User: Which sequence fits this backbone?
């Protein structure tokens, strides 16, 4: 079992930055690949970014590539999502998730956090 807790969400103006964190506990975090997903108000949940177990491989959704950076610190069992140049359309509930599969599965992940809300004002 892996427990994931997101933090760092909040209200920010367009063009600003936020860093989300995902604290993991339970089974060895470094054994799992990690992803960030988001669910905008009234829309389906969508993929944002992924990082493999070692941190050596990443990939991003086209809508955030060049603005967001995913990272992890296995020594501290924590994942991160640095979000720069935020836009109103980035407003969403952001979730971190963990899975043994790489690339991340298109449907479902082994473990999910409960999310943190990011609101970007124009």
Assistant:
């Amino acid at each position: 079992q892996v427990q994931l807790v997101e933090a760092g969400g909040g209200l920010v103006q367009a063009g600003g930055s936020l860093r989300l964190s995902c604290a993991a506990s339970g089974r060895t975090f470094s054994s799992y690949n990690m992803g960030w997903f988001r669910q905008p108000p009234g829309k389906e949940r969508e993929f944002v970014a992924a990082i493999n177990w070692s941190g050596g491989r990443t990939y991003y959704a086209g809508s955030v590539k060049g603005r967001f950076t995913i990272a992890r610190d296995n020594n501290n069992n924590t994942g991160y999502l640095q979000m720069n140049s935020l836009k109103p359309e980035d407003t969403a509930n952001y979730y971190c998730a963990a899975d043994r599969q790489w690339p991340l599965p298109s449907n479902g992940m082994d473990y999910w956090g409960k999310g943190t809300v990011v609101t970007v004002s124009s």
Remarks:
- The first strand starts at residue 2 and ends at 7.
- The mean pLDDT is 96.
- The CA atoms of residues 30 and 75 lie 8 Å apart.
- The chain is about 0% helix and 50% strand.
